């Protein structure tokens, strides 16, 4: 069984409220992608967040802790779910704006800044407890993971269209 937090405080409220708002906002948007693409994009976001935390917040590196404990609890998993609507909005905007050339670079920089600011706000609500981690490391991490996300999205979209044309 997944343990509950020892105390229900500001970080749990922050995760719940933000998750609710982001999911509601995402569901409000007109559908742009097939459900299969949406599910894969969301799973990719959760995977990247989990992988990053395993690389940087484990006992070996221990740059930061998440939520109230070093051990997984319910709100750690809910926090990972929060990455899905953010990445969905990221690829949604990318697709809607049909960016090319240098605009893609500006888009990536802009969203990396947005991600870093959101992470800093999360830190203020004690979602992240930094030890050796500096907030600008997060900017670097987003500048790496977001292009990978766009590559994954483009691959999925092209594969989907190829499959649809071959039917």
From TrEMBL:
<feature type="transmembrane region" description="Helical">
    <location>
        <begin position="101"/>
        <end position="123"/>
    </location>
</feature>
<feature type="transmembrane region" description="Helical">
    <location>
        <begin position="77"/>
        <end position="94"/>
    </location>
</feature>
<keyword id="KW-0812">Transmembrane</keyword>
<feature type="transmembrane region" description="Helical">
    <location>
        <begin position="13"/>
        <end position="30"/>
    </location>
</feature>
<feature type="transmembrane region" description="Helical">
    <location>
        <begin position="135"/>
        <end position="156"/>
    </location>
</feature>
<keyword id="KW-0472">Membrane</keyword>
<protein>
    <submittedName>
        <fullName>Putative membrane protein</fullName>
    </submittedName>
</protein>
<feature type="transmembrane region" description="Helical">
    <location>
        <begin position="37"/>
        <end position="57"/>
    </location>
</feature>
<keyword id="KW-1133">Transmembrane helix</keyword>
């Amino acid at each position: 069984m997944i343990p509950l937090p020892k105390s229900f405080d500001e970080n749990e409220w922050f995760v719940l409220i933000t998750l609710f708002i982001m999911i509601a906002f995402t569901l409000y948007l007109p559908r742009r992608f097939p459900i299969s693409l949406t599910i894969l994009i969301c799973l990719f976001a959760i995977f990247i967040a989990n992988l990053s935390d395993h690389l940087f917040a484990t006992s070996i590196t221990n740059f930061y802790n998440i939520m109230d404990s070093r051990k997984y609890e319910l709100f750690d998993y809910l926090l990972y779910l929060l990455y899905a609507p953010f990445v969905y909005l990221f690829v949604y905007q990318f697709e809607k704006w049909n960016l090319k050339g240098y605009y893609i670079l500006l888009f990536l920089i802009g969203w990396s800044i947005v991600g870093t600011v959101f992470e800093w706000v999360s830190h203020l609500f004690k979602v992240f407890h930094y030890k050796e981690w500096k907030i600008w490391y997060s900017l670097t991490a987003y500048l790496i993971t977001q292009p990978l996300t766009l590559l994954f999205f483009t691959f999925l979209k092209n594969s989907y269209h190829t499959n649809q044309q071959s039917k």
